[in-house]
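User: What would this chain look like folded?
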Amino acid sequence: LTYNSVTHEADFSYTTRSVGEAAWLDVETLYKVNHQAKGKITKLQGYGAFVELSDGIQGLLHKKEMSLDGMKEPSEIVSEGQEIDVIITSIEKAERKMSFSIKPFLN
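Assistant: Here's the prediction, encoded as structure tokens.
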């Protein structure tokens, strides 16, 4: 908000950038490939589960990264709302995509 004391006019400007867009600006400083992060399962699909790390930052835990053989259904391994530890396997900032694995935690 700016105010011109000569003309007595106010000028108001704002941005429509969403929380998700703003979060992705700093994604590479907040998260690193091959590092561990805590996340929450937000949605299950036949091909994997979406994991949210923080507001506006989420990515895919593909079913092949959920078990050693990659053959189990996501719903057999995780459930919506569950908090899990993941390893970040890729970050594509421009496309706003991240990939995760839980294989390193499997025995």
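The two ends are 57 Å apart (CA to CA). If you want, I can go into more detail on any region.
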